[in-house]
Design brief:
Helices cover 26% and strands 18% of the residues. It has 200 residues and is of the alpha/beta class. The strands form two sheets. A seven-stranded mixed β-sheet has the order 5-6-4-3-7-8-9, sandwiched between helices. Strands 1-2 form a two-stranded antiparallel sheet.
Length: 200
């Protein structure tokens, strides 16, 4: 089965296919015949996601890759060129990515990242959530196609903001461009590199 691509900010954000699930009562997603878990966690609204992005000054990409065909590479390239964030890469099997050092773990970073953007398989997500808590990150963001309520519970219990199954690149580009998302409009339409509120 091939991956799916979602266009945003000029390049695709490719992710593995995720099985669809029928909608249950109160709009919650039910289990599929293949045994997909119930989705009971409720994510932040569009204004709340914008607030998370505005509060962040640094982003650590866990599972970053130097392979141009990987979704994390597209996201890293976009964030470095079209956002105001300081971007750090976490991959124990890489020395450098996009000309920057790659670190073995979140604990090895030279700074405490505000937002941890995760590109890892489902079984690894609770562990990454705990690492984000341990280093003092402020937000955990699970990439498009990733959903793990155990990871969300770990992060939220420690006071972190949590976003799941969304692409940082796509969300940033939509908000930056003033596009309507879930009825929310930033009112900003510009081709210039964004400066988030509170940044110099």
């Amino acid at each position: 089965m091939t991956g799916i691509s979602v266009e945003g900010a000029g390049s695709a954000c490719a992710v593995p296919p995720v099985p669809s699930a029928p909608s249950g009562p109160s709009g919650q997603t039910g289990a599929t015949e293949a045994g997909a878990p119930l989705r009971t966690w409720q994510g932040p609204s569009a204004p709340d996601r914008l607030a998370i992005l505005r509060r962040a000054k640094s982003i650590a990409i866990v599972g970053a890759s130097a392979n141009p065909s990987r979704a994390s590479y597209f996201v890293a390239t976009y964030l470095r060129s079209s956002s105001p964030y300081d971007v750090y890469f976490v991959n124990p099997r890489a020395d450098t990515i996009l000309g920057q050092p790659a670190y073995a773990s979140l604990a090895d970073l030279p700074v405490v990242p505000d937002l941890v953007d995760v590109f890892r398989k489902d079984a690894d997500l609770p562990g990454v959530a705990q690492e984000a808590v341990d280093v003092g990150a402020k937000a955990l963001w699970l990439q498009l196609g990733s959903w793990n309520e155990e990871a969300a519970a770990i992060a939220e219990a420690a006071g972190l903001d949590v976003v799941m199954d969304r692409c940082v690149k796509i969300e940033h580009a939509r908000f930056h461009g003033g596009l309507h998302l879930a009825g929310f409009n930033t009112g900003e339409i510009t081709s210039r590199k964004q400066r988030l509120s509170g940044r110099g």
